[in-house]
Amino acid sequence: MALDVYVGSLTGYYADGPTTAVQRLAWQQRVPYMVIRDGRPDGHAEHDVIHSAVLAWREQLRRGLGDRLGQRLDWDESAEAPSFTGRPGWDGYGGVLLLAAHDEHPELEAPATVSADWPDDVAYQTAVAAGAGSCYDHLLLPDLWLPCRFEFTFRTQDAAGHTVDVGSAATLLAQLRTLRDRTGLAVPDGGGEQDHPPGPKPPLRDAARHGLATLLRLAARAVDHQLPMRLDY
């Protein structure tokens, strides 16, 4: 199963999913939903259901966060909203997270490569432990980043009722740039030539370079266009 990153409206994200996901969205957000058959077009009806469900979820989130945000939680959920995707892959994503964890814990030996069990790495487990206060918390913890600047992360349910950890796209971008500068990986914000997957079983820094290039590019798009960003797998 590949790991992609999506930047764009959440309406667009869910619209590319299966019909069962639309039904779950409608049920979760209490939006009326009816499958139209007998040859009648249902694309617009389905899009409207998704759009209404996402807006209802965003409003619930606004009320729940209250005055913890310094700005209004808002973004473009129209059909005209742009979207961007990239594929860091599990090696690239894991490489970035391992690089960040070992930058914070240089006393622990970093692995030479990114293996399938990278989430069991001691430095990573230490960095994501409850109360760890990592300086890379918006990189290490979230599955979903919102286009509003805030310094905390939190756990909630997404519009479809799945548990997600949420961070700020702007804070993520700042932390990715800090990681790049502290580790000396020559990766531009736009990705550039580094945005190419390495071969099988790549060294840690090669995998991290590809993952960091992809994440930097997409986080910059999320900030520039004021759109959500989320992992997709």
Order of helices and strands: EHHHEHHHEEEHHE
Shape: globular
- How far is the first residue's CA from the last residue's CA? 7 Å
What is the total number of structural domains?
1
Largest sheet, spatial ordering of strands: 2-1-6-3-5-4
Give the number of DSSP strands.
6
Helix content: 40-55%
Largest sheet: 6 strands, mixed
What's the alpha carbon Rg, rounded to whole Å? 19 Å
Report strand %: 5-15%
Mean pLDDT: 88
Instruction: Note poorly predicted spans.
Output: none
Helix run count? 8
What structural class is derived from the secondary structure elements?
alpha+beta
Record keyword descriptors for this entry.
8 helices, globular, 233 residues, alpha+beta, 6-stranded mixed sheet
Q: Explain this structure to me?
A:
- This protein is an alpha+beta fold and 233 residues long.
- The protein has one domain.
- Helices cover 45% and strands 10% of the residues.
- It has 8 helices and 6 strands.
- It has a 6-stranded mixed sheet with strand order 2-1-6-3-5-4.
- A hairpin with a 5-residue loop joins strand 4 and strand 5.
- Helix 2 packs across helix 3.
- The longest helix has 23 residues.
- It is globular.
- The model has no long low-confidence stretch (mean pLDDT 88).
